Amino acid sequence: MLGPGARVAWFTVVGEGGGPGRWVYTYNFGGGWNGPVEVDLGGANDLGYVHAMATPGGQLALVGQTFTGQYPDGTYAAVVADVTLGQVPTFMSLEPPDPAAQVRSGADLFYDGAGDTHVLAYFDGVVAYYHRPAGAGWAGHTAPLHVFPDTYRARFLRPADDRLWLVRGSASGQGVQMLRAPTRRGGPVDWASAEIVDVTSPGPGFAAPSAIYVESPTYQPAPAGALEFAVCGQYQVGDRSIWHGRRE
User: Fold this and answer.
1) Which of 2-16, 24-38, 62-76, 229-243 has the lowest mean pLDDT?
2) In angstroms, rounded to a whole number, what is the distance separating the alpha carbons of residues 18 and 109?
3) Residue 123's pLDDT is what?
4) 3-class DSSP assignment, residue 172
5) Which helix (H) or strand (E) holds 127?
6) 3-class DSSP assignment, residue 21
7) How far apart are CA 127 and CA 155, in angstroms?
8) Is 214 helix (H, G, I), strand (E, B) or coil?
9) Contact 229, 164 (CB under 8 A)
10) Nearest-CA neighbor of 23 among 79, 72, 71?
11) CA-to-CA dists, residue 136 to 36, 52, 116, 117, 131, angstroms
12) Most buried of 47, 170, 172, 236 (most Cβ within 10 A)?
């Protein structure tokens, strides 16, 4: 959506000794690299686990994780931002599902055809879902609308001519599930009413996967042709194996 051949690259300059860090990006529309643009992280010294998608307006919508303070005694936050290339974005923190919950990572982001933004963030043993309506800023939309319990990894999928799906992996060894949104209309997804498909485990170590990979507009210009994904097995149990799944 940034245009044919357009590219964006970013990295973080981590603050020394727990000091303030910077997020730096550069962009190329085909005629050479522009920037770099340096972004103050508002006192945080790191920004990682970034998931981003281009929007039809030529922006990047992103979710990530910040760390503030000196490791390991600092604090984490899940943050969102809209990046207009060439300009400095403002990061906004997402509210945790529980005041005591500690964010582990930004889990995924999906910008749909209606202009709505869907976000997942991973906290202690759960994944929280957030939604921002088309044309709105993040202010007033930072509270979670749904919490997936016992979840370590979760990703969005949107096959061609289908509703939004979510694939989640259990944190406690209960397996992998696919959830299908009840409708295709815009707005927040009522995940409590979603169709649920339990995925048969292909073998030991896949009941609590360490990673889930999906077809996504984040990685490719063409829409996903089918509902398929890859799962990496549990750490120290099946993490040397990857299983590919496809819903016929």
Assistant:
1) 229-243
2) 28
3) 93
4) coil
5) strand 127-132
6) coil
7) 10
8) strand
9) no
10) 79
11) 28, 18, 9, 10, 10
12) 47
Q: How confident is the model at residue 1 (pLDDT cuts 50, 70, 90)?
A: low
Using the structure block, give the residue that is written with the tokens 């760390």: 67
d(CA 92, CA 89): 10
Local structure of 191: helix, strand or coil: helix
Asked whether 126 and 150 are in contact (CB, 8 A), the reply is: yes
Write the pLDDT tens digit of every residue in 167-209. Answer: 999 999 898 999 999 988 789 999 999 999 998 887 778 888 8
Q: For the whole prediction, is pTM greater than 0.70?
A: yes
Q: Give SS3 for 193.
A: helix
Distant-in-sequence, close-in-space partners of 132: CB < 8 Å, separation ≥ 6? 80, 116, 117, 119, 138, 141
42: tokens are: 């508002």
Distance CA 26, CA 135 (A): 26
Conformation bin of residue 135: beta by default, left when phi > 0, alpha when psi is -120 to 50? left
Compute the mean pLDDT over every residue in the chain, rounded to the nearest whole number: 89
Tokens of 74: 């600092």
Q: What's the Cα-to-Cα distance from 104 to each of 17, 76, 86, 139, 244, rounded to whole Å?
A: 21, 7, 29, 22, 25
Q: Which amino acid is at 184?
A: R
